[in-house]
Amino acid sequence: MPFDAKALFGVLHFRLHSVEQAKKRQVWFGGRLFNKFSGQSADYIPLSGVHLRQVFSAAGIDAPKFIVARGQYELRVDYAQRAYDTLKGQVGAVAE
Question: Which of 88, 84, 81 is nearest to 44 (CA)?
Fold first, then answer.
C-alpha cells in the first residue's frame, strides 16, 4: 500500500540511517560480517515496487516500466537521498 509523503519520508529516514550504520561497521572485519549476515548494505536500501515508484516520483525520476508493485528491489543510496531531500522540503512545508 502506498505511503503518504510524511510516512515515505519516515521510511527513507530510517533506511538511510541504517545505511549510515552499515557504512560505519564496514571498516572492520566483524562489521562487514555483521552486515553480510544481517542483509544490510552500505550502498543500497530494500524497497517494494510500490514504494520504489513513490521514491522515484519524489525524486523527479520516471520509474522504469519493469517495476512491479509486489516486487522487491534495492535502490542506490544516492537516489534515496535525493528523494529524501525533496520530501524533507515538502513535509517541512506541511508541518509549518
Answer: 81
